[in-house]
Structure formats: structure tokens, C-alpha cells
Amino acid sequence: MSAIREVTAAEFDEVVRRSPVPVAVDFYSSECAPCEALAPKYEALHELYGQDVRFVKVFRQANRPLAEELGVRSSPTVLFFVQGAEVGHRLGGAIRRSELQRELDALIPAARVAAIAAQVRPFTTYCDVLVLGAGPAGLTTAIYTAQAKQKTVLVDVGLGGGNLAITHQVSNFPGFPQPQPGYQLADQMLQQAKNAGALPRLAAEVTRCNLAEHWVELDGVETVRAKRVVVATGSSPRVIGVEGEREFKGRGISYCATCDAKYYEGKHVVVIGGGNSAAEESLFIAKFASKITMVHQLEALTAHKAVQEQVLQHPKIQVLFRTEPRAFLARNGRTVDGVRLHDLERDTTYVLDTDGVFVFAGMSPNLELFPGVFELDPYGYIRADADMHTNVPGVWAVGDVVSKKFRQMTTAVGDGTIAAMAIAQEAGRDAPAAGPHAY
Ligand SMILES: Cc1cc2nc3c(=O)[nH]c(=O)nc-3n(C[C@H](O)[C@H](O)[C@H](O)COP(=O)(O)OP(=O)(O)OC[C@H]3O[C@@H](n4cnc5c(N)ncnc54)[C@H](O)[C@@H]3O)c2cc1C
Asked: Where exactly are the structural domains of the chain?
């Protein structure tokens, strides 16, 4: 199979628009983490589909007018063409192998789809340490274990960085006197892990998993088997279970101000919650929105005193105390445009018009993949010992997914350090490996 062709704007009509076969076009950029995550998947699928679909790449920075003409605004963006016309769905961001495959399958006859599926050859990667989750805890673990010459595979369902990557400004990470954009710190940690020799598998789908046997299957094709596993899957914003919440998530309901506040320039936003996250993120959203209404069950905010004061004095922020959301409404049929609220003092219900809602109601551990595997605390977090080892032999847990009192970057980084050092110490006592399964 020939290499994937690099196409310039001058060649685009000839190679893409006048192609006799369907074409996949990857607009990529340099220094682009999601582009790097996509590259091995794009190449693997080129190997499989290359007889039926032409695969090309366009370097976006050098072909800006073409990207603009096609409405390509971010990298990577993958487009599909049949007989000169764009078809299917554009893919962007953390592109998964299965998403790409679905679009490619739609371009070719069913008989070829079946023939290609029959050619897929699953394979196994053996390693010393498998780290699940590339947030601050998993990245730190990987930096240490890779530096200790342990072959380390680092898996993330997203692009890595975890909650650090979506934190607008980090002002309390030691060594940085000025607040740092979270995505930049995350990027540097990932680079450091790669430099140490860790092998990332980003935007991966964990299709099967057996922690007791120390293996996961990724994207249905690669099984990673390890001597030792570190679970660093962190936590995600808690869903509050209010009517309309699941339905309108991403359509006017957001859990991430850094990601979505920019879409609310000059708009009215409702924020659900009264703790640190709700208060701090409201102050951030206030840089964009014209008005913020915080909705909080209790009669006082529970955020730190200093943040509370800033919120209560902010001219754009109003707080409705002793009030609960009962439903998120989309009377326009598209996106959230109202919240049904219940005033707990007066026992009355009314609708507040809004342009969008942010929910900050705490976090819950990402453990869906491992039901019944771990000993958990009453809140559902993994119990680990002083070395971060869990109840499962050869499996450690680090960071926000672990039962503890304080969840911060520094505590996550500390956990990763402890687990990695305990692993390196234990690995030093391993008998030398031999045979085909020598890791
Ligand atoms: C909005 C916000 C602001 C914050 N601000 C600060 C701050 O200013 N200072 C501070 O110290 N802390 C802050 N924190 C807390 C800090 O971000 C966390 O304590 C820290 O990120 C925890 O790191 P972690 O690696 O344990 O988990 P996470 O950061 O949650 O990372 C977990 C990673 O695991 C991946 N993952 C999930 N499930 C799987 C799976 N099944 N397989 C593989 N990968 C998986 C996720 O994609 C993610 O990348 C903030 C948190 C939030 C939400």
C-alpha cells in the first residue's frame, strides 16, 4: 500500500474533487495533540480501506484559503468526498477509530465492508505498566514508570490532560508564579511522559477489559496486557437527574465553563450549584455573559469565603437561595431556553427564561468500566492503601478516582508518584522474564 498522499490546495481539485473513488481528507496542523492521536488510526484504516477509498492529508497552516473555503476551522477535521461532493459527517477533535470506520463503511458497497472487516487482524501489546487515564495522576505515573525503564502504555478515552485540560487558569500548581492555562500544563505533562518513553493511546475506545487479568482491549483490535495496572480514570461532573438534563446535554446544558462560556457572549446564563466550582466558574462565565443567575438549594453559598464575596458583589451575578431546578425546558424545540424552578421557602414553582445552563453539582468517579471490581468507600471511590495499591493484586489506583479528602492536581500528582515508585520497587524484585510473553 502506498503512503498517504499529502495534497496542496493547487492539487485538491484533481486529487479529491475529480477522484473516481471516494476520498477521505484529513486537515491537520503541526503541534496539534488531537492530530497526533488521529495519525496512527488514519494510517491503520488506510491499510485496510486503501483499495476502495483514497486517503489524503492537507496541511492546514499551509493551505488556509482552501480550509476556509471548505469551512474547516479546527484541526484535525476529516471530510469525505464522493464524485466531488462532500458526503457523510465531518469528524473533528478526539476522533475515534470506530467513528472513522463508520464513515468509511458508508462510502463503499456492503460486500467490501464485510471483506475488509474479515481482514482486521487483532494484535497484542505486552508492557510492564498499563496506565488507564492520562490526567495529572496518570501522566505523573507514566512519567515516573517510563523513566524507571518500565515499558508503559498510557490509555485515555479522550485526548489526555483530564480535568486539568479544561481548567481555565491554574494558579496553585507549584513552580509557576503566574496562573497557567490548564491545557498548556496538561500538554507539557503529556510531552514529558512521551519524552520519557511512555506509549500513548489517546481517543481510544476501551472495548473490553479484565483488570484481574491485567488487560484491556482498545478499539476492538489491540489488546494491551501488562504486569501491573494503574487506574487513573478521575472523575466527571455529576449529573443531577433533573428532567430534560440528559436530553439537552450539549444543547444548552454544559458542565464545563472553560469549554462553553465563550458561546454565551452577552447572554443570560443559569448556573446550578453554590460550591467552589459553581462560584469560581460563575466568575469566569461573567467575562462573557451579560447576566448570571445562580440557583442554590441552601441559604448560603458553600464556596470559600473570598470567592463568595466576589460572587455576591459581582454586578452581573444574582443568587437565588433556597431554590431548586425541577426541569430544563426547550420551548423552541432546539436548545434550552428556560428552567422550571421551585422556591423552597414559598413552595412555588415558576419558569425562568435563559439562554443556557451550567451545572456544577460536584463530581463522581469514572468507574463504569470496572463494575464490582474494587472495594469502594460509601461515596463510590476506590479504596487504596498507602502505596495506592487496591484490593486487586497488581492493580493500583491514583488521583481523583481514589477515596480521599482533598482532590487537587497536587494530590493527584502525589498519588501518581507514590504508585509509580511502589511499582518500580516491586518490579526490581521480579524474576527475569523469558519466552514469547517476555514483556
Ligand atoms: C473545572 C475544574 C477546575 C479545577 N481547578 C483546579 C485548580 O485550579 N487547581 C487544582 O489543583 N485542581 C483543580 N481541579 C481539580 C483537578 O483538576 C483534579 O484534581 C485533577 O485533574 C485530578 O487528576 P486525575 O488524573 O486524577 O483525574 P482527571 O483529571 O479526571 O483525569 C482522568 C482521565 O482519565 C480519562 N478516563 C476516564 N475514564 C477512562 C477509561 N475508562 N479509560 C481510560 N481513560 C479514562 C479521562 O478522559 C481523563 O483524561 C479542578 C477541577 C475542575 C473540574
From this structure: 5-119, 124-236+363-427, 245-359
CA of 235 to the centre of ligand 1 (A): 6
Distance between Cα 187 and ligand 1 center (Å): 14
Which protein residue has the closest C-alpha to ligand 1 atom 41?
369
- Residue 236 CA to ligand 1 center (angstroms) comes to 8
Pocket test for ligand 1, best of 143, 155, 164 (most atoms within 8 A of CB): 164
Residue carrying C-alpha cell 477535521: 77
Tell me which residue of 261, 257, 316 sits closest to 290, measured CA to CA. Answer: 316
Distance from the Cα of residue 251 to its chain's centroid? 18
CA dist list (Å): 295 to 194, 272, 286, 301, 316: 43, 5, 15, 10, 14
Residues in the chain: 439
Mapped onto helix, strand or coil, the DSSP state of residue 351 is strand
Strand spans (E) along 116-257: 123-132, 152-155, 199-201, 206-210, 215-218, 222-231, 235-237, 253-254
Which CATH superfamily is 245-359 part of?
FAD/NAD(P)-binding domain (3.50.50.60)
**Domain covering 124-236+363-427 in this structure, CATH number:** 3.50.50.60
- Model pLDDT for residues 298-310, shown as the tens digit of each residue: 999 999 899 999 9
Does ligand 1 lie within 6 Å of residue 283's CB atom?
A: no
Distances in Å between the Cα of 195 and the Cα atoms of 52, 79, 188, 198 are 37, 32, 10, 7
Torsion of CA 326, 244, 371, 137, to 10 degrees: -90
For 22, phi and psi rounded to 5 degrees? -60, 150
Global pTM reads 0.85
Q: Which three three-digit cell numbers place residue 210? A: 479484565
Which of 96, 166, 167, 207 to mutate for ligand 1's pocket (most ligand atoms within 8 Å of CB)? 167
Taking the C-alpha atoms of residue 103 and residue 306, their distance in angstroms, rounded to an integer, is: 50
Ligand 1 centre to CA of 138 (Å) is 10
- Residue 366 Cβ contacting ligand 1 at under 6 Å: yes
pLDDT in tens, 136-189: 999 999 999 999 999 999 999 999 999 998 887 788 899 999 988 889 999 999
Domain 5-119 coded CATH 3.40.30.10: yes
